[in-house]
Amino acid sequence: MTDAAEPVSPAVTPLLEPVEGTPPVITDARALADVAERLAAGDGPVAFDAERASGYRYSQRAYLVQVRRRGSGTALIDPVALPDLSVIQDKVGGVEWVLHAASQDLPCLAELGLRPTTLFDTELAGRLLGYERVGLGMMVERVLGFGLEKGHSAADWSTRPLPEPWLRYAALDVELLVELRDALAVELAETGKLDFAHQEFAAIVAAPPREPRAEPWRRTSGIHRARSRRQLAAVRAMWSARDKIARTRDIAPGRVLPDSAIIDAVLNAPADATELVKLPVFSGPRLRRSASVWMGALAEAAALPEAELPPATASTGGDGLPPPNRWAERDPIAAARLARVRASVNAIATRHHMPVENLVEPALTRRVAWSPPGDPTEATVADALRTGGARDWQVGLTAAAIAGALPEPPPAAPALASGSGGAEPEPVAPEESRPAVDAP
């Protein structure tokens, strides 16, 4: 997906139209089969992209799929009309696929029967190379010198028919993706990071489907203002009621009820629907009609027994670790250990010009710092990192440094006091030459 807004320097060549023009949207099986044959006859990697309707729809399904290969041109495919794209998988499934921010698009492509066996992620390549801005538009501009059209990334791609300017934007998103891949591959090789990238790409391909987030209601904006467990229960109840409506209607939850309205209702604790609709967001006609739903959620939370109230703090994803900001009070020694490990890992990331989270996953370093191996050697730390999912290149760069940071350093020797003028202290007489002293 292209950046929303990036400054274009005078040296950048604006790319306003696809070189072969904007292709028509494929909506029938015969045209799809023709596209698959063209792709099979093309050359080199295949560029893929997908457009979703995030912010408009509840689901994360694809509403447009873009494909391009040298010698084949660009195809725009409507996955609403054609929900099974396995014919393309059959033709190019074994070819390297190029995506930008692959982890965002692979789940919705998989729903259509599209799964790569080999991958090149241009965004991840940019991160490994130390690019500060890794949006597609800025990467194409900086690496290739072309400015992509911007402005439709946040559009409602479930709209039908799709406007021509949107289709042009979508086609341009794959226009130079393979060329960007080729240039980044050269840079990765020159910096000794090509093997790093290949390991990362393979890990993305092999990753299992993402597990649902634990307690997603805790991500409600403004939830820090809910001070009691009873208020947290009210946030949870309202969030769940909203989620049910959003899922049923396939509407983005924020369009059913904004997070700010949930927090406002919880903090004001209206006694009935009449009081609820006096709150600013609930005073509109649409939310007035559904006031009974939100009051029902608040009443449900108010009636919960104490034992069923949510804990005051969130779990940390099932690993049993406290949040890092609580380590100092829970285990000061572990907190100091984590600080040493982080400093060591940060230094390595700086040396290799990449974000620390790409060098090694922060959750993994926390786990190793909280429960280090009994004998923290490079080998035992390497085993712990691999068990946690680290790739070989990450282990090779970090295991020794982490192992060195885990043990508590010995206390510093006290400095010897010097006399005035910096004179050396007088030597102590040997034991045998000291005068005897009577015991008291």
From TrEMBL:
Keywords (A to Z) from UniProt: Exonuclease, Hydrolase, Nuclease
PANTHER family: RIBONUCLEASE D
Protein name: 3'-5' exonuclease
Hydrolase listed as a keyword: yes
Keyword Nuclease set for record: yes
InterPro entries, sorted: 3'-5'_exonuclease_dom, Exo_C, HRDC-like_sf, HRDC_dom, HRDC_dom_sf, RNase_D-like, RNaseH-like_sf, RNaseH_sf
PROSITE patterns in alphabetical order: HRDC
Annotated CDD domains: RNaseD_exo
Ranges that cross the membrane: none
